[in-house]
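ugh ok fine here u go
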Amino acid sequence: MFRPRLGAVFTSILALSTFAPASAPQGAQPPARKPGVVFKEEVDALVGMLTEDAKENGWPLGGVSTAARARILVAMSRCHRRYYYPGDVPAVTHAVQALIAQRRSDGSFGDGAATAWTVEALAGLPLEPRFGEELAAARAWLEREKVAAGGFDAAVTAVLDGVRADVFPQHLGAEAAAKAKAWRQSRAGLVHAEAADALLRLVACQVANKQLDAAAAPPAVAAWSPAQEKATQWLMARQKDGVFEASYAGKTFPDAAMTGFGLYALQSKPKARRSAAEQAAIDQGMQWLLAGQNADGTFGQNVPNYTTCLVVGALHRWGGPGAAPALAKAQKAILGFQNAEANGYARSDRDYGSIGYGSSQRGDLSNLHFSLQALRETGLPGDHEAFQKALTFLQRTQNLKSTNDFQGKVPDPDREGVVLDSTSGDDGGAGYYPGNSNAGYIVHPDGKTSPRSYGSMTYALLKSYTLAGVPGDDARVQAAVKWIQDNWTLAVNPGADPAMGEKVQYQGLFYYYMVLAQALDAAKVASVRVTQPAADGKSPALVAQIEWRKALRAHLEGIQSADGTWRNGNNDRWMEGQEMLCTCYALTALELCR
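structure:
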């Protein structure tokens, strides 16, 4: 891949740029690289010509060749316009339909090149939910036929390999730009295969130039505050050889879950800032975890999925010797916990696609968002079927009638013998699992109930949708974001039924802070648009853009104890009466408040 070599390429540019090329006139300065988007007009013109040609000669875009059509779509999805499917432009829609029509019974789309480019085109648009089976079959065919990898990344690499002190992407795409200009003047000589190659080259130059822009930018300095340092020192004082203990039922013992979370929190401190003692503790703790991995890939003895996900996060950050094979085994274990066909579940089952504390436990949104993050951290590709199956469960936890198909009887876990007749609400937020909420229920006139949406689970929903590849403009994501806007607060975990008492709104508060930061960071939300009613109740409502990172950092630093810890003093449910857990939650959240 080209990315590991990018730093070396840019360093070479810096080193060479102090000298004029041998062929340059004395005193002449070598040409400078143009920052930003290059070849914007040429790419737009080529796409426009190909689209006009398709309209005049009959859809689809790209003529007869499957490989050429796929290369055009790859370029369109990665260019500065970022064309997507469906409904973006008709050219894309028709071309995708034409590609799918070329699929053969063996899973291929023609020869190796045509199949490889088609897979890249469909996966990049993205089309995984719609054409997941076709993509899986085509990838299996490519693997059987041992077709060499290449594609768009190779095209970008070729551009970067050509960069010199006086040669940049704006020069390396000149030939393709000249062809585009000639075709624009007269489309008589336009050949689809050549146009596909020219478009791909121009877009590869755009992406390569963007990579060079990033390399030229000054490195970001990781924020690290006195509050984080104080909390880190408290954690260091609680570990022994990198191992953290847990206390339960009057007993204290070394614990894989606490060790995994503790080491994850310690690694929130940038490596360059760590002391030798801190790094040694991290390394020792990781070795202890690796030595204790179970034969089935899990960690710990209780709540195996939850514990394994925590350890995966710590191992992923660490990346030391032995981490890769351990993560591979853990990935297999987590996949094995999913409530899907392999475990006897059908899509019609309420828990389909979910993951719980372990294989015998019913699923819930809390365990699922941890699991999806862990699967990503173990390297599971985004097009894996596990993410698509998880979407079924995610939709059933969201109070959104247009996508939530769950209705049925659900036992009330807090009231013996009470069965709820559940149906979806429609405010866009989320409960704990389909039909269930720790924030109470809304009772409708017909006696049916809807689980109340509440803060921590709505953020878990947004995070999970993002991890599963759902784009930000999707109606499900937009509904969750609107709930967040309408219920923004850092004072409590919002959404609880007032009738349950004031204490309930503080349950899981520090967990709420952590998942809030993870969700908004993953979804690339910089600020939350909040509508605030006027104080007099008559004037127009006020709209504020809350910079959540700044607000959350200030809030957490303001409630930190003098010893560097955090603890939920208003509600100790879910172990939040323990400084260890709340401090790890807070450090994880603060790391994302850059």
